[in-house]
Structure formats: C-alpha cells, structure tokens
Amino acid sequence: MNDNLTKFSVGVFLLFGLISILFLSLKASNLVGSSYADGYRLVAFFDNVGGLKPRAAVRSSGVLVGRVEKIEFDDEIYQAKVFLRVDRDMKFPIDSSIKVLTAGLLGENYLGIMPGAETKYFVDSDEIELTQSAVILENIISQFLYNFQEKQE
Question: How many contiguous H segments (helices) and E segments (strands) does the chain have?
Fold first, then answer.
C-alpha cells in the first residue's frame, strides 16, 4: 500500500511539473495572460509592419499598455491595417504617434506609442494618424551599399 501511495505522489508531482512547464511556455510566447478585452480598440496604417504579429506588445515608455489584435492588408490603400487593443485605464491624446519597434537587434517587433500634447483623447475605434513603419535592416544595408557604390564612381 505504501508503494502505491509513493507512485501516486510521484505521478501527481510529475503532472504538476508538466502543467507548470506548459503554462510558462505559453506565457513566454504571449498566448496567455494580459487580456485587454475590456480595453478600447485603435486602428493604425503602416507601409511596412516588418515581423509584427498578432498578440505583439503595445508599449508606451517601455510599459505594456495593450496588445495587437490582428493585422490585415487594406487593398484600397495598399497598406497594412493594424488593430490594437489598449487598456481602458490608459488614455492617449489624439495627436499621439505609433511606430513599429524591435526589442534588441534581432528581437521581436512591438508597437511603441509616443503620447502627444492634445487635451482630447482616443476613444474606441479611432485611427492613429501618425505612424512610422518598421526599420528593415536589409533596406538600410542595401541603401548604404548603393550610396557607397555611387561615391566610388
């Protein structure tokens, strides 16, 4: 009987460990936690979103204030249309700007909001007018090489 209790205890401990590892891996990949379902939705258009993905962080001054809901291609203006949801307690002026940033040199992309100075604030379904697309490393290198080649001639 004591042997069965030991086996049961080891099994429960192993199951708890596996569930913990699963939860931590989901948390690290932004698939659980930090729900902003009760926040307000904003829309922004970008020429290039780089590697931005749904559930990517939306940050202001390095603080997580929301998440990217979905990304679509608008075939009328030929730009990426990004829907983001911001925590309802976070109020941003209507002249705020947003840009696609990268966490480190090769890190994942996220959106950064720079607050403006207006006294009116965004409300649900507003569009952020001032956007800056992702900086693509390949484009910078090719531009540098092109300029360098022109100077050589």
Answer: 2, 8
- The residues pairing with 110 across neighbouring beta strands, listed in sequence order, are 101
Tell me how far apart the alpha carbons of residues 80 and 14 are, in angstroms, rounded to a whole number.
45
What is the value of pTM for the model shown?
0.72
Q: Which residue has the tokens 């904003």?
A: 42
- Distance (Å, rounded) from C-alpha 33 to C-alpha 22? 13
CA dihedral 111, 116, 119, 125 (to 10 degrees): -30
Tens-digit pLDDT profile for the chain (153 aa)? Answer: 678 888 888 888 899 998 888 888 776 665 555 556 678 999 999 999 988 999 999 999 999 999 999 999 999 999 999 999 999 999 999 999 999 998 876 778 999 999 999 999 999 999 999 999 987 777 788 888 888 777 776
Asked if residue 115 lies in contact with residue 65, where contact means CB atoms within 8 angstroms, the answer is no
